[in-house]
Design goal:
single chain; 286 residues; mainly alpha; two-stranded antiparallel ribbon; 12 helices; 4% strand
Length: 286
């Protein structure tokens, strides 16, 4: 659908399409039409939705009887894959004040965050007078020490008790045209603006700790270039281009397989993603 000349129609079509787009993981379970189209995955989700904590633990321990589950062979294969490769809790979910301090110090202040209005500038201000307050007296911490300690405690309380702060539930979707010449609703680049502390929390637990742990276990494929340290997606593209050039010049038969699902980040099912994280050792409370 092309963008209209009126802002009202643009908002209507954009909201309608994006609401459907970001509900793929839900419709995967409840829509009969989607179920028929994606029959290989629906049985897995139907089973896992009522799995319960006991069966989840058995699944991760490799003690769950998978062959007796009424589902597709593709779903059974994924369930077998979810057997733990690292002890539970190998990746700690505890956040220290130093984690929070380091995260905010490295974060560029111009980054758009926090629909609540608690912009990064509020947290960056804590670093303003640190050099004037240098002290080795633990009984008299600096103002910044106290601020980041409070923030770390709030994050740890949320993790420990499974609590979601109300401000974490509000997300602003900013949309940018990918192609200004041809304005299409389907070609809008969407940027999700979430609370800075929640964004920092996910970055620490998954972006740093879990990814580093997965790298150490060699659980990530060589063809995965995005979201990995010292790797870029462009390198994968260059490698593919060189491979195809060699194949063409040497007239060699070749078959390639690209496992890249459309809008895969938008289709992530949280339950399955949580099990995949726990398989690698993530603390279940996270």
């Amino acid at each position: 659908t092309s963008l209209s000349k009126t802002a009202k129609d643009n908002d209507k079509y954009t909201i309608k399409r994006k609401s459907m787009h970001y509900s793929y993981s839900k419709t995967l379970r409840i829509s009969a039409k989607q179920t028929e189209r994606l029959s290989h995955y629906h049985p897995l989700l139907k089973y896992s939705a009522g799995m319960g904590q006991t069966n989840s633990v058995k699944l991760l321990d490799g003690k769950l009887e998978i062959d007796g589950i009424e589902t597709t062979e593709a779903a059974r294969t994924l369930l077998r894959y979810l057997k733990s490769t690292s002890p539970s809790g190998s990746v700690s979910a505890y956040i220290t004040d130093d984690d929070v301090r380091y995260g905010y110090r490295k974060w560029r202040e111009s980054t758009s965050t926090s629909p609540s209005g608690l912009h990064l500038g509020h947290d960056k201000a804590a670093f303003r007078y640190e050099t004037r307050q240098q002290t080795n007296n633990r009984d008299k911490p600096r103002l910044s020490d106290r601020i980041f300690k409070i923030k770390a405690n709030l994050l740890n309380l949320a993790i420990k008790n499974g609590h979601v702060y109300k401000r974490w539930t509000k997300i602003v979707n900013a949309m940018i045209e990918r192609n200004p010449v041809r304005s299409l609703v389907s070609k809008l680049r969407v940027i999700h603006l979430i609370e800075s502390d929640f964004n920092l929390l996910t970055g620490i637990l998954w972006g740093r700790r879990l990814m580093a742990h997965a790298e150490a276990l060699e659980e990530l494929g060589d063809d995965q270039g995005g979201c990995r340290k010292d790797r870029r997606a462009l390198e994968i593209l260059l490698f593919k281009h060189i491979t195809y050039s060699i194949v063409r010049l040497t007239k060699t038969n070749c078959t390639s397989f690209d496992n890249n699902a459309k809008s895969c980040f938008d289709r992530i099912v949280m339950l399955v993603a949580s099990l995949c994280s726990q398989r690698l050792g993530m603390d279940p409370k996270a």
